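quick one if you have a minute, typing this from the bus. theres a chain ive been looking at and ive put its sequence and its fold in token form underneath. please have a look and point out which stretches look like helix strand or loop to you. anything you notice is useful, everything is just below.

***
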Amino acid sequence: MGALPSVFGDEALAAFELDFFDAGSRRRLPLGLGWRTRFETVEPVRPFRWAKGGRGFAGWYFSATMRDHVGYESWLERDRLILLDRDPQVTGIASQPFWLHWYDGTRNRRHAPDYFVRLADGRSRVVDVRAEDGMDEETHEAFAATERACRAVGWEFEWARRPEPVFMANVRWLARYRRTRCRRPPTVVERLVEVFREPKGLWEGAELVGDRLQVLPVLFHLLWSGVLGTDLVGGLMESDSLVWVEKGQRWAG
């Protein structure tokens, strides 16, 4: 793709092109025409591959937000996907949503961002995931070009780095209880919210509600969803970790 003339006011809207699947058909449009597509609903533009002996590890994560599987190409991408899934402001997630094409003055380039995210207030966010020690010059250039394209259409751009390890380990554990089936029975939900209005140890509060085998999955789901809170940064969760009802949170069973 050569440099295109500006016909949209901002030259970036013509200089970049979006290449994506729409209702099963492949489309390629200037950024100024394609950006209104609801990219949180599109199919990935490339398959998720795993090469034996490679550094990446591809897979599919069941997103409670999407009620469907979303792909990832590394453990780091999976961790970011878990964090997006837990974020109450996120309403839509798509992986590898489009190829972004541009000409860098020397050659034609393309880059497929890791995620497109839709937020509850309608904003759009493009997320690229890469540890700082995994960046090279070409990746820096691709991220910079993607950020420029996002800025031209009012999208947010995020370079997601490696998360804090203790926090991420705790959130991975809670993600096991992300599914809505862990909200039941409602009587256990209501009782847990009542018990933890005064902060208590995790097991202490669970035992006040009933059989731990029945209560703990519900408790962990409430911690995942943010109805209950605990310190996820200071150390790994333990049986005596302090748990409380988050301020302003109301449970709608």
Q: What stands out?
A: The chain has a mean pLDDT of 92. The helical segments are 12-15, 31-34, 75-86, 137-153, 165-175, 186-195, 202-209, 212-225.
